[in-house]
Design goal:
alpha+beta, single chain, 7 strands
Length: 142
């Protein structure tokens, strides 16, 4: 699915809640998160990504199918020697679906987009040492 202003607005109107050792970080696209910056620095990580297998193409999918896809994504990450942490995508809109996701330290944007593309995703959240999450469209990397 091509990038649309409606999809972009929806992704930006979402809190990406990350469950890290020592606490929770609520990430918003384009907004620095000092707690994440400190965690990345302490952990020696240079980059991060938030990736989900839920609702491919931003089309609401059955919960059981989403759970299976997310479990497969987590297995792929573990097999790739990454250490994913639990995360949730929490839209500001009350009736929008919440999604499970993974926060993955040291996963490059290119690798995150390739993996997300395998799961039919439109975009990932990624960033670097500054702790600022960015919306990255899969089509920009392909």
């Amino acid at each position: 699915m091509a990038k649309t202003s409606e999809l972009e607005a929806a992704y930006k109107a979402t809190t990406y809640r990350v469950f890290l050792p020592g606490g929770i970080c609520d990430l918003r696209v384009g907004e620095a998160c000092e707690a994440l910056r400190c965690w990345l620095e302490t952990a020696g990580c240079k980059q991060f990504a938030v990736i989900s297998a839920y609702n491919p193409g931003s089309v609401t999918t059955d919960e059981a199918i989403n759970a299976e896809r997310q479990a497969a994504l987590e297995c792929d990450l573990l097999e790739g020697n990454y250490e994913p942490y639990a995360a949730q995508n929490l839209p500001d809109v009350p009736d929008a679906p919440q999604e499970e996701s993974c926060f993955v330290p040291d996963l490059s944007v290119e690798d995150a987009c390739a993996l997300a593309g395998d799961y039919g995703q439109n975009a990932v959240i990624g960033g670097g040492l500054d702790g600022v999450p960015h919306l990255i469209w899969i089509e920009e990397i392909e």
